[in-house]
Recover the amino acids of this structure.
């Protein structure tokens, strides 16, 4: 079946540090990949996405590249801010299959001033 | 655009009562909506897929008589937690899918969640 594995947190960084949150996936067919962000007490917001191999999604300084050969979609940001403190979810959806998003377990990021 | 409104955002009630949570797509029509439950340490669990005009499809292990879902229109789905008990306390999140519309570039648009506390 389809699944997403992302690094367990929590992750604690100082402001301006480099961020990497690892995400790997298992899927039948050719999935689209997503990163969602959840700020405290809120629902999920789409952060970025990639729909095919070698695509790079980017938004608000965050980036992730769809690597088919390593089945990975790692999230990176060069310089984190306190306002980036949130829970980050990696997710996939398969093309032409179920409409369901398959989520990883989430990684909580705390950025300290 | 693509606003999904969830109401209430927070509810506290006594054990044994039923609680209804509404999920509305404000600027698009959603033939499909989803209900999630979020556990401590942030893990998300899909509870059911709600289809307009038909019965919801529940995930394995979710009690359909406990968690009643009604998707009576293209913009509204409701989740009713019947005879709620403290173990039902959780954060419930809905999402909506815009099939083929202007907001179909994302698979689902999420509401802000409902914090349910059963005393």
């Amino acid at each position: 079946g389809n699944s997403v594995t992302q690094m367990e947190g929590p992750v604690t960084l100082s402001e301006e540090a480099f961020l990497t949150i690892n995400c790997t996936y298992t899927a039948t067919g050719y999935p689209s990949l997503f990163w969602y962000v959840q700020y405290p007490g809120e629902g999920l917001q789409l952060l970025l996405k990639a729909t095919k191999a070698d695509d790079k999604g980017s938004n608000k300084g965050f980036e992730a590249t769809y690597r088919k050969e390593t089945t990975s979609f790692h999230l990176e940001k060069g310089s984190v801010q306190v306002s980036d403190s949130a829970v980050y979810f990696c997710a996939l959806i398969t093309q032409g299959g179920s409409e369901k998003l398959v989520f990883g377990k989430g990684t909580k990021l705390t950025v300290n001033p | 655009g693509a606003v999904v409104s969830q109401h209430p955002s927070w509810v506290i009630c006594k054990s044994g009562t039923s609680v209804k949570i509404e999920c509305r797509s404000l600027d698009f029509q959603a033939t499909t909506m989803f209900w999630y439950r979020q556990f401590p340490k942030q893990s998300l669990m899909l509870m059911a897929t709600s289809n307009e005009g038909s019965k919801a499809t529940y995930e394995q292990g979710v009690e359909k008589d406990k968690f009643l879902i009604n998707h009576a229109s293209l913009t509204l789905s409701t989740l009713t937690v019947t005879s709620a008990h403290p173990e039902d306390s959780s954060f419930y999140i809905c999402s909506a899918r815009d099939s083929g519309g202007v907001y179909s570039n994302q698979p689902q648009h999420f509401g802000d969640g409902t914090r349910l506390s059963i005393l």
Summary: Chain B has a mean pLDDT of 92. The first strand of chain B starts at residue 4 and ends at 7.
